[in-house]
Amino acid sequence: MLIHILWGGNPIGAKFGLEVFPPAWSAFIRFLFGVATIALWCWYRGHRLWPDKKEWLPILSIGSLFTLQIYLMNVGFNQTTGINGAILISTNPLFAALFAHLMLTDDRLTTMRSVGLMIAFGGVCLTLIQTTGEIVSFGTTGDWICLASAALLGYRLIASANIMRQVDPFRLALWQMVVSLPFYLVIGLTSETIIWSAFSFQAISGLVYQGIIVAGLGFMASLWLISKYKPSVMTGFNFLSPVSGVLLAGLLLGETISLTAIAGTALVATGMVLITLRS
Asked: Which of 57, 65, 107, 198 could disulfide-link to 100, CB 3.0 to 4.6 Å?
């Protein structure tokens, strides 16, 4: 339960970091913290870090998905509100349930879970509706990028569940981050500018939170859970992520929590509860 509440704060930490560090730089710094956290934990526990020869191909495969998904997430967060980012990125379990149905023979959609998906995606549609005067639009570019990132994350969760039959979950958590670092560094150096004039303790705190709490401890915990439980069901408390994310965006970012945001969050959270049911 605590993990999902903390994950809900990820978009808010990202928004703070993005005030100074653009998407690729934010990801690079975040995962430096994440790699250090996981490496220290594995060293303390005497857990081997270097992959076996047979583990490299799965690690590179998941690492590539991971790199793209995180980059899209940061770009999306940078172009939308903290509230919308929190709701939309938290839909990854919905996509995980869809991909599990297609990819895993023992994790199928039931009638109840299908209803849950429809309710939750109804909440997504409500979140995407933007009204400016008499003009009604359906989502900003940032909203759609966040949703694409959520879909990739859902797929990555299921792919990771399969791959962890071959790869140690802690090595996977570590090396998918290591694989991403050169990409983020190159993009940051060649196409982004750090806004040093906006540098603040708040921005660094956001990246530390994302790197140590979410990327380090959170990723290790999530991969361990995936290795022990069915991936679309072990997320039984995922409904807490959009709720905590929206509340934190209102509290820490000063964003207005509209009735539309409340309704969208409620529908997404309700749908997430239903997709954990087995009948």
From this structure: 107
